[in-house]
Design a protein that fits this description.
single chain, alpha+beta, Glutaredoxin, 3 helices
Length: 86
């Protein structure tokens, strides 16, 4: 089964569209709203994002080992199809 995780912002319209894209396809996902974390909780998240060579631009979606930054349904679809074949 494909594991989907995302870092989002609670007020970001692109983050909301991303969540809705996965919900509409009944694809389960976990997420963390970065802006709802306190400063101590943000630090390890920020470090992980930097280790993955990304910037703090949301949403950030992990589909297994594929990382997609931003709302991009074509990339979501492609990653889901590829990961389900494995």
């Amino acid at each position: 089964m494909v594991k989907v995780f995302m870092y989002t912002l609670s007020t970001c319209p692109w983050c909301k569209k991303t969540k809705k894209w996965f919900e509409d396809r009944n694809i389960p996902f976990d997420f963390i709203d970065y802006d709802n974390l306190d400063s101590e909780e943000k630090k390890p998240v920020r470090e992980k994002i930097q280790r993955d060579n990304l910037n703090l631009s949301f949403p950030i979606i992990y589909i297994d080992d594929v990382i997609i930054q931003g709302y991009n349904p074509d990339k979501f679809e492609k990653a889901m199809v590829e990961k389900q074949r494995v």
